[in-house]
Amino acid sequence: xxxxxxxxxxxxxxxxxxxxxxxxxxxxxxxxxxxxxxxxxxxxxxxxxxxxxxxxxxxxxxxxxxxxxxxxxxxxxxxxxxxxxxxxxxxxxxxxxxxxxxxxxxxxxxxxxxxxxxxxxxxxxxxxxxxxxxxxxxxxxxxxxxxxxxxxxxxxxxxxxxxxxxxxxxxxxxxxxxxxxxxxxxxxxxxxxxxxxxxxxxxxxxxxxxxxxxxxxxxxxxxxxxxxxxxxxxxxxxxxxxxxxxxxxxxxxxxxxxxxxxxxxxxxxxxxxxxxxxxxxxxxxxxxxxxxxxxxxxxxxxxxxxxxxxxxxxxxxxxxxxxxxxxxxxxxxxxxxxxxxxxxxxxxxxxxxxxxxxxxxxxxxxxxxxxxxxxxxxxxxxxxxxxxxxxxxxxxxxxxxxxxxxxxxxxxxxxxxxxxxxxxxxxxxxxxxxxxxxxxxxxxxxxxxxxxxxxxxxxxxxxxxxxxxxxxxxxxxxxxxxxxxxxxxxxxxxxxxxxxxxxxxxxxxxxxxxxxxxxxxxxxxxxxxxxxxxxxxxxxxxxxxxxxxxxxxxxxxxxxxxxxxxxxxxxxxxxxxxxxxxxxxxxxxxxxxxxxxxxxxxxxxxxxxxxxxxxxxxxxxxxxxxxxxxxxxxxxxxxxxxxxxxxxxxxxxxxxxxxxxxxxxxxxxxxxxxxxxx
Length: 678
Fold this sequence. Notes:
Radius of gyration: 27 Å
CATH class of the domain at 392-468 and 476-676: Alpha Beta
CATH superfamily of the domain at 392-468 and 476-676: P-loop containing nucleotide triphosphate hydrolases
Distance between the termini: 50 Å
CATH topology of the domain at 392-468 and 476-676: Rossmann fold
CATH architecture of the domain at 392-468 and 476-676: 3-Layer(aba) Sandwich
Shape: globular
Strand content: under 5%
Low-confidence stretches: 1-12, 467-473
């Protein structure tokens, strides 16, 4: 097709779409449907046409056709809230109210600005006497109804990922209404999602100046400040928030969370206890208290807090998952029965449903019911995967970009430079690969502070991305080529200064953010003397352990067997590259070697760090330091082999994982086991 033909075709498509939309507005649904069919013949993936074709078919009471259009739409746009809303409308019109409710819930979780879905949920909850849920739905309705129609539309399309259109329209609205704080919030959220944190901070700062008593607005401002590592300013805003609203338990709980983020878990518990004195039935506060207790190693107290939370609210999935996430808790038969009943509820939020599925997987596995355990793992991961925008191709491209840019010549051309500090020890690799164990061992040394997972390197990388608009990868890592010696020095210096608040008095400290393996080139440029340890684990053990874990955020590759396997293989490829271009820079520590020869591997790591041997590193499990990761309870026990081979009962389900990892990275006997399992 030549350019003139292409332009003519696009013009025709535009005319047809305009005519079709007008037909829908005039309730001429068959005419509209005929036009949509023409458009979809030319462009089968035209999102608006698929959506409106479904709407038209529904009004014509052709429900099966309507569902088919939506199914096609969901393949292209799995996170489009309006698609789930339309599916809710279809089932409502078919009289299948409970199915409708499921999809309305999904719609609201994907896009909180969908007024029609909230209205439908309010009606259902009110009729079924679910007062708390009805009240929540009513609050959302009132909030959305108070917005100008233009902002409601912007809110909706922003949540559909149409950030370019949302930004244009939001800026146009603000030109006419320059002090409208909700519009400023929407623009700040668009900036936040695009990675423009400076813009987001500026907008929210101005919005708070205009509406200093708006607690929710100030809370959003505090959140972006934390994201930018401005801890002192974050705490300042949280304190103002709590002073202005002393009776608001949500804000008080957020302050406790902020204190915990800064390592003050004992202080946080005192604050949470004060909240509970006023409101002992605040289930979420009991859960937060449990998290703080778990971090401090007070496992029995944490269990009591989680149990109290779910006794108050039986569908509080986070409490059950938190018990499972201890890795040492055994569910009772009554608890398992309750979870099975809850996960079937049509009015259960997707968030809670995911929590229950992951908790049930743990409980069923402990009972030896691997069939049901894998079912729940699949369902829980599917919920998270459907909500994720993770792309194997995009991640492969991002990591390949590191290989393409950071070659031998790259480091030779830039030459020496950066901050001369020897303080940091980066423990990186993949989640569930043994990095927490390594950190616990090293943090038991008198000359090393354990500071857990720090986001600073990821934040620096983000600041170097440049134009990262609408899904493009941006300038990073190419932008590293233009870093001056002064900039490299300053970036390294700022890392040391910004992380100081997490340290105590030891001369060295750990940063165990696993995803830092993507940025070893950057670390070397700004802190060439920093030590780097690659925590590695056998791929089947590592990937399946990731698949079993419900992460808080940032590990979206774990929500599918194919995704996890592909990520592992790409990680190995990138680490091999770093070893080639930065020889002797990285110490690889295999989890299996630590388990088999603890003392030998401790000596090996300390020699690499140029530190003397200390017996405390061997008795690391007696260290009472705070541990905030999923492995917190495991590293408080002596070395054991419990985590090895736990994938084997699921061998028949792991063919997609093996295919994506690649047989060359897996033991031959394990390849055979998976291939022949049935």
